[in-house]
Here is the input.
Amino acid sequence: MQVPILKQGDVLIASVQAALTDADLVQLRDQLTEKVGRLRSRGVIVDVTALDVMDSFASRSLRNLAHMVKLRGAETVIVGIQPEVAFAMVQLGLRLEGVLTALDLEEGLEALNRARTSPTRAH
Amino acid sequence: MLTETLVPILSEMDIVMARQQGRALATELGFRPGDLTLIATAISEIARNILIYASHGEILLRQIQDGPLRGILVVGRDQGPGIPDIDRAMQDGYSTGKSLGLGLPGAKRIMDDFNIVSEVGRGTTVTMKKWNRRP
Here is the structure.
């Protein structure tokens, strides 16, 4: 299932649906990396509220996505990780090191605004 | 009548199918939402291992009972190359390069019982159980 990507100002918002295959995640990463350049976006929000499982492949894909977007000059915020998904990730030992996270879309936009006023270097 | 489902693992879509079927069975068995996510995640990890290392195999999902206790049995089977060193494969972060190396040890941590049998050249069978401790 393809992930819809909305453009709002200089922010791209991708809303991930429940049943994502590995190929969908790779496609999302590539689309966002490309769109950041084409639309000259400064921020990317990936909303995973509907994601029921975040396994090792999904978390690695999101981490790679955030780092690639960063190398293209934009910030990524992952929003909407559900409590039980967070619990499973901790149990599995999965980390989203170096990736901004926020509670929901609203907080995510705020986090992007904050990140914009204090630019960071690429990891 | 105990419910049993067999999901063939032949492509990425089947990983999603296996974890959805596992979640559906666990929901039927009355597991808490937090447990549903743990079970689905563990299934996802072993299904992906089958696909990555053996290219195909199957996931068996079955209801189990121990006195008043109900649970779910998940068996992942393949006839792939097998794992030469299981102790190392069960270490966090150990991987032959195709994955993060958290799949097997992670699945072990989130299930109640975990057993792995592997023979080089013959295949691998992972057996996991989770009991519903909800009163």
In short: Helices of chain A lie at 22-38, 56-71, 83-92, 105-117.
